[in-house]
Design a protein that fits this description.
145 residues; mainly alpha; two-stranded antiparallel ribbon; 2 domains; 2 strands; rod-shaped; 7 helices
C-alpha cells in the first residue's frame, strides 16, 4: 500500500520481477527470519515441501516470464510445464532416496539366521509357558464339588 520507495523498486514491480522487488522492499530483519509459508507449499509438524521455491529458482534461471506477449505465451507455458515436471521428478527422487535410507536402516536391525531362529525359539517357549499357565489356572469348570 502506497508508493514504492525507489524508482528501481517501482520498475521491478512494473516488470513483474516480483522476487527482486520483494528483496528490495523487505528489511534486513524480515529477510533473516522468513515465514515458513513464504517458502513451503505444504508444511506440518513432520514435513514440508519446498517445491515452490525450487520451481521459482528454476524459472528465474531460465528467464521464464520476461516479455510475455500473445506470441510467446505457448513457449512460456511449455517452459513452465517442463520446469514443473523436472522439479516434481527431483522431489520424488529425493523422497524415494530418503525412504530407501530409512528402509535400509530398518533392515540393518534384522538378525542373522542364528539370531532369527533363537528369536523364534524364544517366542515358542514364551507361548508354551502362556499355555501352561492357562492350563494351570483354576476355573469353575475344573473344580470338583
Amino acid at each position: 500500500a502506497g508508493r514504492p520507495e525507489s524508482k528501481q523498486l517501482q520498475e521491478l514491480v512494473r516488470q513483474l520481477e516480483v522476487e527482486d522487488a520483494a528483496i528490495l522492499s523487505a528489511t534486513g530483519e524480515e529477510m533473516a527470519n522468513p515465514s515458513p509459508t513464504d517458502w513451503f507449499t505444504f508444511w506440518n509438524k513432520r514435513s514440508a515441501s519446498r517445491i515452490d521455491s525450487e520451481l521459482l529458482e528454476e524459472l528465474i534461471e531460465r528467464e521464464v516470464g520476461r516479455g510475455i506477449t500473445a506470441s510467446t505465451w505457448n513457449q512460456t507455458t511449455r517452459a513452465c510445464v517442463e520446469c514443473i515436471k523436472r522439479i516434481q521428478k527431483r522431489v520424488k527422487q529425493r523422497r524415494t532416496r530418503y525412504v530407501k535410507k530409512l528402509q535400509s536402516q530398518a533392515r540393518a536391525q534384522i538378525f542373522t539366521i542364528e539370531d532369527a531362529t533363537a528369536n523364534v525359539a524364544e517366542e515358542h517357549h514364551e507361548a508354551a509357558l502362556m499355555r501352561e499357565g492357562q492350563r494351570l489356572e483354576r476355573t469353575t469348570e475344573h473344580l470338583r464339588w
